[in-house]
C-alpha cells in the first residue's frame, strides 16, 4: 500500500512516516504541508491511503477529501484532528473520509486503524476484481469444493458473517445460507442467470424468497449503521460497511437514524449476495 500524508505540522508528517515504515504497513510515496500542493501530488501518484489533517490553512481537510474523490476515487482517506465535534466528524464522513483519528497521535491506535483500512481496501478490491471477471466472462473460478470438510468450513464462515450482521435470526437468513451455499458448491455465479430464475430452483414462490432475503440484508444495513453511530472504530462496522455493503448507503442510513435525512440507505441484493459469496470464499 502506498501512503500520502497531508498536515501543516512537519513533525506530525514525520511521525506518520516513521510509524508506517517501522510497522511495515506500506510505503510512503509523498507528503505535503498544504492541501493545494497535495492535490497535485495525489492526481499524479494516486496513493492507496491518504492521512490528512482536518484543520489546515488555505484548504481544510474536508474540502481536500471532497476534491480527492474526484481526482483519485480509489484512494482511501483517514482524517486526523484535535477537533472532537460530532458535527465536524459527521461532515468528514459525509465528505468521504473512511476513518477518523483523534490527536494527539497514539501509535497503537493509528496502526490499528491503518491495518483495518488495509484489510477493508484489500477485500473491496478483491471483490471488485472477481465481479469484473464475472462480467467479462462466465468462467468458473476453478475452486474445488468436493470435500465435506471444505463445505462445512464455508458454511461456518457464512453463518458467522450473518451472526455479526445481527440477522441470523431473520427468516431470510436461511434463504441466504441455502442460496450462497448452492452457488459455492455448484461453482455458479449470479451473473450467469437472473436472481428470480435462480431462486425458482429453491422455491415455487421465488418472489417471497427474494423479499425475505431483501428484508434480512436491509436489517443488516440498519444494524451496521447503528454500530457506526455508536463507535466509528467498531470492528464489525469497519469490516462489512465497505465490503458487503456500499459505504455511501451505510452513511445514508446513519443520517436517516440521526434525523438528518428522510431517505433510508439502499441495498442492491445481487451485489450483496455476490460480495457475501466472495467474502466467505476468500476469508
UniProtKB/TrEMBL annotation:
Entry keyword set: Phosphoprotein
Taxonomic classification: Bacteria, Bacillati, Bacillota, Clostridia, Lachnospirales
UniProt-listed PANTHER family: TRANSCRIPTIONAL REGULATORY PROTEIN GLNL (PTHR43228:SF8), TWO-COMPONENT RESPONSE REGULATOR (PTHR43228)
UniProt cross-references to InterPro entries, sorted A to Z: CheY-like_superfamily, Sig_transdc_resp-reg_receiver, ST_Response_Regulator, YcbB
Residues recorded with modification 4-aspartylphosphate: 53
Summary of the function given for this chain in its UniProt record: May play the central regulatory role in sporulation. It may be an element of the effector pathway responsible for the activation of sporulation genes in response to nutritional stress. Spo0A may act in concert with spo0H (a sigma factor) to control the expression of some genes that are critical to the sporulation process.
SUPFAM superfamilies, alphabetized: CheY-like
Domain Response regulatory: 2-118
Protein name: Stage 0 sporulation protein A homolog
UniProt keyword Cytoplasm, yes or no: no
Pfam families xrefs: Response_reg (PF00072), YcbB (PF08664)
GO BP field: phosphorelay signal transduction system
Signal peptide: none
